[in-house]
Amino acid sequence: MAKKTEVKMIEVPEICPQVATVTIAGDSDLVLNKMNDVTVRELTGIRTGRAKSTEKPNVWEEIITSIHWRDGKPSEFSEESLEKALKENAPCISAFGLKKQLNKAVVRNKIETYSTAFDANVNIISYKGNGLIPIKFAEHFIDELLMQPKKGKPVLQRINRFSGWSATFDISYMENVFSLSSILNIINLTGFGIGIQSGTSSGFGRFHVEDVK
Questions:
Q1: Are 193 and 17 in contact (CB under 8 A)?
Q2: pLDDT single digits (tens) 166-177
């Protein structure tokens, strides 16, 4: 006689994520330095076997395209277009990069052995879903650094640095897993000991929670 199979019903409760608006403010300058378009073209050319261009790179294209922009990068590359973009557009930090640093803080500060639960239950909501978080700032600087690559001659690199910066973004979270106060503590731990964007090993990109709504 065939054995009767018992079917176990699994009830999954409806999820009700909470949303909060968080403003972080810089405790040290913020460095924004993604791979610029000039470098991307050079690397793409090497991979596809194209000859290296002998044309002198546009310095302003290097500077401007090493930043993520809220409304897209300018169509022209000059000192004037950079100044206009800084006034009318907005430099941005990466929502993915911020979440990655928060996950790192969870493990480094021994809140959890792994960041899996935090990663699954806390989301950073970017500006219009574009993966970016605009910043406000008091001053912008272009730092010139002489970098020594593994091969070849030293290269002059220009870095965008912002002082007096802040950023506002929304978080959605499952309150039954991580309370808002716990999440804010994790954000503060990230800002105190890890930082965001480039140059964090040198102390750049440190921040604290300034406001919550």
A1: no
A2: 999 999 999 999
